Amino acid sequence: METDLSSQAPDTAKRVFWTLIVICAVWQIVTYRNDFYLIIDDWAFFGTRLDLLATDGLDDFLLRRHNEHLMAGMVVWDVGIASIFGLRDYLPWLISVLCANTFVAWVIFNYSRRIGVAPIAAAVVSPFFLVWGAFDRVGYWAPEAIFAICLSLLMCHFAIVVAPSPPIRKELVGVGLVILAILIQSICVAVVPISVAILAVRRRWRSMMIACVPLVLYVLWYATYQRRDDAYRWPIGGAYLQDRNLALFAEFGWKSLSRTIWQTANFPTFLVIAALLSIGITKLIRQGGSKRLYALCAVGASFIYLVGFAWARGFATLKIFRQEIPSRYVSVLAILLLPIAGLGLNVLVMKFRERHRINRPTLAVLVGALVLLLVVSTAFQKYDRHQEDMDFARSTRDRLTTELADPDLVNRVPSDFVFGDIVWMDIIYSDLFRFRRLGWL
């Protein structure tokens, strides 16, 4: 069995993968090069967080919770880029997200090969993660992309965990990746116990203790900084009663799964994906060994994520705001489950080929054309749907620029919100003074 995600793949598959990565990245840059998408969460980092740095120190700047979560890595990402490039142009953020999503695509490529997807097929499909229309903002907005990024870091650690006897150096590197993932967005800590459980079952006690380090650190953070006030100036709205029940969880589940390949949730799409998953999982379980382990762990991790997402956001998403399932949740499920569904599709395609005696090149062209059509159509739908959001984000930057040019700015009350009662825009006039002093705007 291969021992790490960097193991050798056929050279042709690698060349195809990196060629498509470049094409998809260029496509994203050309598509969004003139757009701007720093919005709610970003302004909280540029506003309140920098105040925390000045008043409470570096530890609060990094470790104070954002909503319920630890997001120190995301804070450093946003503030670091702003410190170098300012806030006038979004291109540095877009390029950074593309680099991170390239890493995610690389993990998908290697994970797909691990479970038996043909190298060329994995190389052709995985780069489309950068532009896949169903993932919406994952392609260009870091706070949405970090869910998939953190999962990919954990999958690298998992590859080390399931290896027969990895050297301690690799185990330490793997744990470092887990800690990094938790620092970026701590919700991923929920699936870390899967790796710990595997090590416990295999009685690799030293490895298990090493793998527990991120969990211990998270518990320490939860008992300290998580108990402090949220890193926002504006008041959090009152709690509302959430009617959590099996029907809500079931609806959230099927809509999430169907959203992995299309912009809007629909039940027929869910049935197709569920059928392909059933075939793929059955095939992997029958093969046994590491492939069965990958299948079971992927399903287990998906279930944990789904339950957590539905518990925390299901009622608000489906019943209050009546929105589509957010792409940050969808992308996580897609990474874990779509390669397995792809195996199921391959089984059906091979049976179809044998029955109708279609030669392999013709079949490859037909399947490739369908995949390309799906990618292109969803990508253009995504761009059309997001122009309104982009325009809103651009208008916030323009409003700040206008305020900075106002001769009366020095007479503003520093603690007043720039956007008035739009409290989600966490920027006050003292932040504008800071932006001017730092040369960000």
Key phrases:
441 residues, 70% helix, globular, mainly alpha
Report on the structure:
This protein has 441 residues and is mostly helical. The chain has a domain at 242-357. Helices cover 70% and strands 0% of the residues. The protein has 16 helices and no strands. Helix 9 (192-201) runs antiparallel to helix 10 (205-223), helix 11 (246-258) crosses helix 13 and helix 12 crosses helix 14 (327-356). The protein starts with 10 loop residues before the first helix and ends with a helix. The model is unreliable at 1-8 (pLDDT under 50).
Quick overview of this protein structure:
The chain is an all-alpha fold and 441 residues long. Helices cover 70% and strands 0% of the residues.
SSE series: HHHHHHHHHHHHHHHH
- Mean of pLDDT: 88
Question: Main β-sheet: number of strands, strand sense, barrel status?
Answer: none
Q: Spans with pLDDT under 50 lasting ≥5 residues? A: 1-8
Radius of gyration: 23 Å
Shape: globular
Oligomer: single chain
User: How many helical elements?
Assistant: 16
CA(first)-CA(last) distance: 53 Å
Secondary-structure content class: mainly alpha
Percent in helix: 55-70%
Number of strands: 0
Percentage of β-strand residues: under 5%
